[in-house]
## 1
Amino acid sequence: MNLTLDNLRRGIAAFKSRWPQEKDLHAGFYKRLQSNLTDGVTEGAWSKLVDDLSAWRALRPLSKSEAFERGLARLPLLETARRSLIADGSETEPSINTAKWSDAAPLYDIARSIKGSSSPVFPSKLCHFLAPRLYPVCDGEFAGTSVRGYRNFWSESRLALISCVDLAGLQRELEAVLPGASLDGYPWETKIIDLCCAGEQALAERQDLR
């Protein structure tokens, strides 16, 4: 995993090509996520999260109604684990930069139990919706990251962020393509990971075609 300007730019181009309607690179989506969770992981919030998981192609082969029913009994567990991540009051939302896997694992394990699949796609996306700065997304089609075990992927992502020599420059590059968007709560760390992985995959696919 290489968090570089070239990979980021390729990843941004791939994102815009795949989702041209998302001109703000999901900035509005993250604002809506914050609003949806104002009262915690309630039944109403869960219904909207299931819609989002479906839109992000994380439910297959479950239907939305099946995923909704499977998650209902686990909502108190999800909320307790989510709240524990910010219990110390040190920041409004935990970041992969400062957390340890032992901090992130409980919520991930509960999310994984809902679908019961070995794939990290569903639990990583659900956890990303619940704590966007802490959980990078695993996605096979866009970024080629779903083949890795999530704990290894999470740890590799954290190490890449800590080792990145110009993370602030990458954030400025990403911010520059979000004109006029409200960026409060935007998960810079995990979005940079996702886009750089997509950029690496795009480069590899281009080289394979030669």
## 2
Amino acid sequence: MFGFVELFKDTEGLVLLVFILASVSSYSSGSAYGDSMLIQGLGAIKLIPLIILKSLSGISPLVAAICALAFLWYMGMLREIFGAPMMAVMTMALIILMVGG
């Protein structure tokens, strides 16, 4: 049996804790899973640059390659700034937002 402190020692535990808290808060208020501010906020950190770079990449194949490199650089910088556990939470939030919540 894990205690509360052990949840922060690995990435999976932190992701599980955040999504348990998000699902309890959103479902207790009668809303959908993607409607919680936690999921929208963390997912938007990746979703907004992804949408902007996707729209820019339609200009030409050369710009698409540059946008792909820019997005990979952005993901690398986010991982350095926030760390791997927070990046895992952001990625799960992005997936929930992209699927539709």
